[in-house]
Structure formats: C-alpha cells, structure tokens
Amino acid sequence: MMEKADPSQKLYTRMRLWEFPDQYVVEPTDGSCGSCLEISRMDGSMKLIDEVPECSSVRVPKIQTVFGVIGMLKLLAGSYLLVITERECVGSYFGHPIFKVSSMKFFPCDHSLKNSPAEQKNMEAQFLALLNVAERTPGLYFSYDVNLTLSAQRLHDLGDESKLLPLWRQADPRFLWNNYMMEVMIDNKLDPFLLPVVQGSFHNFQSAIGKDIIDITLIARRCNRRTGTRMWRRGADSDGFVANFVESEQIIQLKGYTASFVQVRGSIPLLWNQIVDLTYKPKFEIVRIIEAPRVVERHYLDLRKKYGNVLSIDLVNKHGGEGHLSEKFANAMQHVVGEDAKYLHFDFHHICGHVHFERLSILYDQIEDFFIKNRYFLLNEKGEKVELQLGVVRTNCIDCLDRTNVTQSMLGRKMLEFQLRRLGIFDAEETISSHPNLDESFKILWANHGDDISIQYSGTPALKGDFVRYGHRTAQGILTDGWNALTRYYLNNFVDGTKQDAIDLLQGHYILSVPRDMKPSSQKGGIETKASFPIALALIMTGLFFSLLSLRKVRFDLRNLLYAMVWASISLGIAAFVRANGRMFCNRPSLHQSKC
Questions:
Q1: β-bridge pairing 212-222 and 197-209
Q2: Parallel/antiparallel/unpaired status of strands 284-286 and 272-274
Q3: What predicted TM-score, i.e. pTM, was given to this entire model?
Q4: Angle formed at CA 43 by CA 40 and CA 44, multiple of 5 degrees
Q5: Which of helix, strand or coil describes residue 170?
Q6: Could you name the domain of life of the organism this protein comes from (predicted)?
Q7: Which three-class secondary structure string do you get for 78-132?
Q8: What's the pLDDT at 114?
C-alpha cells in the first residue's frame, strides 16, 4: 500500500561518529556504500568525503555509534550537531519499523568561541544550559522508511513522483519537529542523513475478536508552529496557529482492510494567555480582542484546507474565567460557522462533574450526525479506496489535555465500533465492552496516548486518566490527580520557563544577539515573571489557612482531607523553594524574541 522512497535516497540507519580534535566524521555502517559526512569543529561547516581520515598519535578520535542525525543548531559563537545515540523499536507503521528516541546528544562545533569576548562566552554558556534541557525532550519518533508526518489518507493520496522524494521532502512541515534544525543540512544537499522526527505518541496492540486478529495503532503528531509548555504557550498567534495542536490518528488493520480516523485538538484560537504569577490558576487575559474574528477565521480556513469539514467542540466551563473566554470564542465563531464549519459548546464539568463521564453520551447524541456523515478513511484488501474521511472533529478545553482526552477516547471508541460493524465483525448492537481483552487494551491505548501528550505540554500524565484506563473513576485516580495538579503548579512556576526557552531555541523562534548595552545577568525577558519574598510568604500563609479550614470540615466531608493535603503541600513546596532560592523565582536566561 505505502511505497518506500527511492532506494537511492534511502536513509542511513546506523552510523559511526568519529570525534577528531578538529572535526567530526559521520560514517554510514549499515552496509550502505555512501559518502561520509565531515563537520568542522571550528564553524560547523559540512561536506561529504569519500572515507574517514587517517588516525595518528596526534589525532586520536573518540568513536561511538549513532542512529540518526537530527540537525544542526547555530548559536551566538558556535554550531551544535544533534544526533540520536540510543533508540527503541516501538512497533510498525504499515509494515515499517517505528523507533522512539531514547537518548540524543549535542556535539559542539565551537572552537571559534575561544576568540570571542567574555560577554559572548557567558551568553553562550547560558544557551548551552538550554541545550542540556533540550536533550531531554520527550516523545520523539522516527522511521527510516515511511513518512510518519502524514495520515494514512494523505499518504495514500501522495502522487507517484512525491513517493520517490526523500522523506523530509514528503513531510508535512507542521509535524516535522526538527524542521528548523534540518535547514543547514538541506542547504548542503545531505538527503541520506536528513531524518524526519515527529514529536507525539505511538502505541499499538493486537487483539482477537473471535477468529479474527485486529491490529490497532494510535499516533499523535504535535504541531511545531506554536509549540511549548502549558502556561507559557496559550491560545493562538496572529496567523491562527494554536498552542498544543495535536493530530491523533487511530488506525485499524483487519482481514486485509485498513481504516483510519483522524481527530485534532488545540487551544482556543484567540489571542489569550495566563501570566505565571504563583497563583494556582492565573487569570485569563485576552489581548487585542478586536483581532479575534480574523485570527479565528485564519485558524479554521487552515483546518478546512487540510481536513475538510470541521466540527469544533468547546468543553470549557460556562461560568467564571473559562466562561468569559468561551463567550468570546463563540462570538468569534459566528463569522466562521457555516456548512463546512460548526461550533458546539459542551460544559464538561457541569454535565459530567468529576465522576459521571458516561454522560458524554449526551455530547455524542448531539454530534452523531456529523460524525457519521464525515466518515473515515478505508482501504479494501486490494489497497483501493472505499471510504474517505471528509471532515474532522476539533476538541478543546483549556489545556486540551484532560477533558479533551476523555472526549477523544469516547469518539475513538464510537468510531471503532462503527468500523467493526461496517466490516461485518460486530452485530448491530455489539460493543467493544462485550470483548474484555479488546476493551482493556483499547482503554490502555488511549490512556497512554493522553499521558504522552500531557507530559510534553504540562510535565505530568493526564488528569482523569483513570476513567480512560479503567472506564470509571477510582479513589487512587482522584488522589493521583491531586498530586499531578500540585506537580503542574510547581513546574509551571519554577521549571517551564526555562523549558520554553529551550523549545523556542530548537524551533528557531528566537534570533540570538548580544546587545552592547546589556549584560546577561541584568537582562529581563518580556514574558519573564519574577516574584518577591512578601508575595511568596503571603501565599504560604494563605495555603496554611485553607489547609486548617479544610481540616475543620473533615468530619462533614472526607474530601476536605484531600483539600487540606493539597493546600499544605503547596505551602510546604513554596517554603522549601524560597529557602533554596532566596532572591527570586523563575530565573530564566533571556532570549531576544523574533516571533511567538
């Protein structure tokens, strides 16, 4: 079904990295007879050479095996080569192995830094600290043989000429995590070394339904246009690209048939943010509200071009700060709603509460018509198109994590049942729940999917994951949600600022420079948040007050014990941090921003 790229353009699958004092040499060792790649350690310049240079007592190289070259990043005074040092095979996609990046490493090409001014050296050291953070980026996947950035439907629709192109040229730039870092290598025409990498999730399993074996794969593809961390990347930019935009594709293979169903999630497409200020839930701020209709229109124009019809499900609260944001979203959608774009608000917390997620059936009843009419992608045993997916469901809450994943897993379950009836495997009233092994594996599949997406955006697994994993809420799940909520608070305030800078550095969202009138230690980033000791002290006292208040109410409702633990933990966490970091919070290296 999915042809490989032209063999002459095949990617190298295993290489040897030679570290000479003045250069790096990447030598293919997978049986290919291609050229070696030489990279200067002085300025990062690249060229192909026929063989590895001779070693000598003066030029004794270090040697290690690498599994891919991700790209090259240029900083102030040096360039840095990023390579995959460890990989793990996690499954297959249309018969081709899929690998997860287990470890990656930057190799410096910065010998010219020796002659740089002291100020520039200090700045470079700060950026190097960000590269250390970037090396721990989670959820990176790649294939040497098949294009992971495209859904099954888009892969099938590639023209014959496109299928012969190198994988990086076939790729959807939105989901190419290393798009920016590949630019230097593209300029040097290094196709066999250009490995497309996707950030997201990849899980699959097999299960028996009677005598039939079904193979189910769930893929997440994270968009790189407005990527970032939970509190530091919200809403949309002026071009309509939104934070935490993820395409989820559920693929089944059964009796020679292949079916694919795509959903998307993404932040509310307005210009809004939440400035980190040490409060548990910072205030929502909508900026340039007059531009809202134009930004929303751009976002949905792009969705319709790529996916066809769009049904937008807004899961946020009807009241409070979320309600105000939802109201502005609904007003802006009035300029977009039509035959090919629809909007539905569903107050998840009001209708489902914290435990009655089975009430999502109310939502499904409202969208069933769109769901059925817009279908899914289906190929028969001969690889011929039988069905096309004509539209997409776009789901959002505030973070597009917890409520969104519960909702998307419900839609994925409904679609799988719909497809199995279409293929004659299920009777008209038969459901996944009547097949315990399939049911359990499917729940785990979506729970892991949600956890992966959540870890990349918030730093913790998804909340409400126990419902997705077990089909009902559990006491352990509620306690785990409390801990994860506390962890998110800590990460949002004290860790994610630096992580956001690292992400922006890798994605090329900043232009690096050293102003003559500014020293690194005194720089203040436009979005950098600093908190004083009195504020921290007030928060500690407030936390202790609510903790004691909750403890007094335990005899009336045991849930107050959990609330007391949460407030006490927040107070202790802030106190410990203040003690260790007396002067300030959120101490981030400053970058000069070119675009958000």
A1: antiparallel
A2: antiparallel
A3: 0.85
A4: 55
A5: helix
A6: Eukaryota
A7: CEEEEEEEEEEEEEEECCEEEEEEEEEEEEEECHHHHHCCHHHHHHHHHHHHHHH
A8: 77
